[in-house]
Amino acid sequence: MKRITILIADDEAEIADLVALHLQKEGYHTVKVLDGQSALHAVQTQAIDLAVLDIMMPGMDGYEVTRKIREQHHMPIIFLSAKTSDMDKITGLITGADDYMTKPFNPMELVARVNSQLRRSLQFNQAVPTQRTLLEKGGLVIMPEQHSVTLYGKPLELTPKEFDILYLLASHSKQVFSAESIFEQVWGEAYYEGGNTVMVHIRTLRKKLGEDLDKNKFIKTIWGVGYTFND
């Protein structure tokens, strides 16, 4: 069985040790670092399956680490931070994190979230080869094998969740998806309060596609129902 390695990046050694202790009890191998640059170096030099990142770290904060990781890697990322505002959480998700927990935290809840993210990641990776094909839609090219998108030949920098939402909509042109359906299919878990999360991701996705509120060429809102893709 493949050994699963989890990166823990936190400038408070006591917290990193606590997280590592609980994850090791679950059978995971852990790599602990105390700053952002070391976290990025670990991802570049080791096979990391999931990262637990603090945001406020010296040298390079968690947001910047995540942006650089997302340039080449798609492993799940969970932010574990003392920043507790809704805007902090939204920024974390937009940057490319898959989940966000605030401090103080319950270590067992963190373990549960790690298990959930790894489970979804495994299911996604197994499904991609047989379920996804290249899509070309009016200047938009979506390449699932490379997990990349170009618009009129220009590469777009999308987070994994933005990519999954775009592919879901584009591969089912004209079908209307509710926020609940998008959340359950992309995040792989039961819908509870994910409507705002979906809305935030749709908004940033539209911005990257160069769309405005008055004219949405690719993603169209069906008010009171959900979202659809214009072919």
Automatic annotation (TrEMBL):
Please state where this protein is localized. Answer: Cytoplasm
Provide the leader sequence positions: none
Annotated Response regulatory domain ranges read: 5-118
Q: Which residues carry this modification: 4-aspartylphosphate?
A: 54
Q: Which UniProt keywords apply?
A: DNA-binding, Phosphoprotein, Transcription, Transcription regulation, Two-component regulatory system
The GO molecular function terms of this record are: phosphorelay response regulator activity; transcription cis-regulatory region binding
> What are the record's GO terms for cellular component?
cytosol; protein-DNA complex
DNA-binding feature ranges: 132-231
- Pfam families according to UniProt: Response_reg (PF00072), Trans_reg_C (PF00486)
Task: Name the principal localization, coarsely classed.
Answer: cytoplasm
The chain positions of domain OmpR/PhoB-type read 132-231
Please name the SUPFAM superfamilies in this protein's record. CheY-like
Which BP terms from GO are recorded? regulation of DNA-templated transcription
Q: Which domain of life is it from?
A: Bacteria
PROSITE patterns hit by this protein: OMPR_PHOB (PS51755), RESPONSE_REGULATORY (PS50110)
What is the protein named?
DNA-binding response regulator
What broad taxonomic lineage does this protein's source fall under?
Bacteria, Bacillati, Bacillota, Bacilli, Bacillales
